[in-house]
Amino acid sequence: MIRFIILLSIAFFSFVPQLLAQFEGEILFELRQTDNGRTDVSEFSITAASDRIYISSNRNLNLMSGLQSDGLLVRNDLQDFVFNTGTNEALKVSKEDLDSLMDMIERFAGASSAGENEKFDWENRLIETGNRQSYLGYEVAEFRVKGEQADQYASIWMTTDIKVMWGLLSDVWRRAGDRFSDSELPVELVMNSNSFPLLIEVFDVGEEVASLSAVRVEKDRFDRSVVELSDDKRMVSLTEMMMNMFRQR
Questions:
Q1: Residue 32: band (very low, low, confident or very high) from pLDDT cuts 50, 70, 90
Q2: Are 12 and 212 contacting, i.e. CB atoms less than 8 angstroms apart?
Q3: How far is residue 34's CA from residue 40's CA, in Å, rounded to a whole number?
Q4: Please, which residues have CB within 8 angstroms of residue 194's CB and are 6 or more apart in sequence?
Q5: What whole-number distance in Å separates Cα of residue 106 and Cα of residue 158?
Q6: Cβ-based neighbour number of residue 5 at 10 Å
Q7: Quick one: three-class SS letters along the chain?
Q8: Is 157 exposed, middle or buried (0-12, 13-18, 19+ CB in 10 A)?
Q9: What is the C-alpha to C-alpha distance for residues 4 and 207, in angstroms, rounded to an integer?
Q10: Minimal CA–CA distance to 46: which of 226, 237, 183, 239?
Q11: Residue 185: how many CB atoms within 10 A of its CB?
Q12: Maximum Cα–Cα distance across the chain
């Protein structure tokens, strides 16, 4: 079930872009996971401005051996990802780099592996409850996704008042996401251009075991500078980074 909320969280940051009003502001989220009586809490935020998105966390993400990042900048205008890896250094991964990587994975995996996962059973596993409430000043509607067991489900509260143009992130998810998820995950529900999930709660045998919740939405006072890079930031390509790691071994 913990895996279920992680997959939903990944999809949460991957909306399909359309010609809609772009949300500009910062949203702070809290992820709570309970396992064996212990609750783990982490925070991350997303800042959207024009054609760039910045996602940061209070915990570092392991990109590869010996390489960590605490923030990801998605530059849709330049078609690349920039990972913060140090005070004066950042890893830049272009869309061309990702396409080449996926081509290589597909060649090794074989064309037959593409699309081999079962499709989500919309008719039997998704329920639009009709429940509505106000959450952080936004009207949200509830959708329930049944889990693998009868007493497992996720409650997803979505608003139509926030729309984010994710661009490059959604392109990558459409190509690579299906390889890392399965029929547990209703990707299209959270990857739509007309609504945005502000609260996801996962229940197992009547107990909440995980939640992903927005705790603040700031549209006026937020730091727009995070979607820009300082002139002294050294950009390192994926190829250069990997070559440096091999030399150090």
A1: very high
A2: yes
A3: 6
A4: 20, 160, 163
A5: 34
A6: 21
A7: CHHHHHHHHHHHCCCCCCCCCCCCEEEEEEEEEEECCEEEEEEEEEEEECCEEEEEEEEEEEEECCEEEEEEEEECCCCEEEEEEECCEEEEEEHHHHHHHHHHHHHHHCHHHCCCCCCCCHHHHEEEEEEEEEECCEEEEEEEEECCCCCEEEEEEEECCCCCCCCHHHHHHHHHHHHCCCCCCCHHHHCCCCCEEEEEEEEECCEEEEEEEEEEEECCCCCHHHHCCCCCCEEEEHHHHHHHHHHHC
A8: buried
A9: 15
A10: 226
A11: 24
A12: 58
Contact 187, 11 (CB under 8 A): yes
Give me the amino acid identity at 84: N
pTM to 2 decimals? 0.77
Beta-bridge mates of residue 49: 52
Neighbour count for residue 108 (Cβ, 10 Å): 8
Structure confidence by residue, pLDDT tens digits, 149-180: 878 899 999 999 998 877 787 777 766 655 54
Of the candidates 214, 147, 170, 169, the residue with the CA atom closest to the CA atom of residue 74: 169
CB contact at 8 A, 72 and 82 = yes
Amino acid at 145: V
Amino acid at 66: G
For 68-98, write each residue's pLDDT tens digit: 788 889 999 999 999 888 778 888 988 888 8
Per-residue model confidence as pLDDT tens digits over 204-246: 988 899 999 999 999 999 999 999 988 888 888 877 776 766 6
